[in-house]
User: What shape does this take?
Amino acid sequence: MAVFDKFAEKYDEGHVNAVKASGFKPDYFHEYKLKEIFAYLKLIGWAEKKLTILNFGCGTGNSEKYIKQYLPNSSICSTDVSEECIRVAIKANQVLSDVTFRYYDGKNIPFENNFDIIFIFNVFHHILRKNQTEILQMLSGKLKNNGLLFMFELNPINPLTLWVAINNDYKFDKNAKLLSPIYAYKILKNTGFKIYKIKYTIFFPNFLSLFLPLEKYLSWLPLGAHYYYIVGK
Ligand SMILES: C[S@@+](CC[C@H](N)C(=O)[O-])C[C@H]1O[C@@H](n2cnc3c(N)ncnc32)[C@H](O)[C@@H]1O
Assistant: This one.
C-alpha cells in the first residue's frame, strides 16, 4: 500500500490546513505553477502546441484543470503510485477531456508514448533518496529528445515551508525529506539532464498580497517557499 493511499480522501482537507498560515487556499499553489509554466512555454513558442504531458505523482488530480486551462490543446497522462489517489483523481476530473489517470506500479510508467513535457510537482521529497536518480533516469527515458521537464519542490531554506512540511508531510510520511535546491541540482545533473533554469517562487503570504507583483523580480533569491527547475536532455 502506498503512503498516500490512506490519505487520498482526506488529502485536500490536509492540504487546506497545511497552507492555512500562508492565507491562501491550495488552488492558489496549484494554479501558480501553471502560470509559471505557461509564461515559459509562451516565451519559447510552445503554448499553443498540441503537447503530450506526463504529470508524474499527480496525487488526487488537483493540477489537471489548470493544465487544461492554460494549455487547452494538451493531451495529459497522469500517474501516481497511490491507487487511491488515482481513484479520487478520476472521480474529480470527469469533466476534463483528453486527460487519463493511471496507477503507476513504481517501475513502469503506464503510458507507452514519450512526452513533450513532464511535470513533477512536490513529489521527490516523498521518494527515498537512494531511488531518486533511478526514477529520474526512467523519466528521462520517457521524455522526447527536445522535451522539457519541470520539477517543483518545497524549499527547506524557507522557514515557513519547513514548518508546513513538519506539520503535514513529515507527520504521515516518515520517508519525506525536503530537497535543497543544490541537492536537486545534483540529482538532475547526475541523471544527465541539461539545466535550463532555476526559479524561486512564493515569497509573500496573502496578507502581504500588495507585494505579489514583486515576486517575478525575486525569482533569483533562494528564499522563496518553492523553487523549480526546467531541464531537458
Ligand atoms: C505531496 S503529493 C503531490 C501531489 C500532486 N503532485 C500535487 O501537486 O498536488 C506527493 C505525491 O507523490 C506521490 N508519490 C510518492 N512516491 C512516488 C513515486 N515513487 N512515484 C510516483 N508518485 C509518488 C504520492 O503518492 C503523492 O500523491
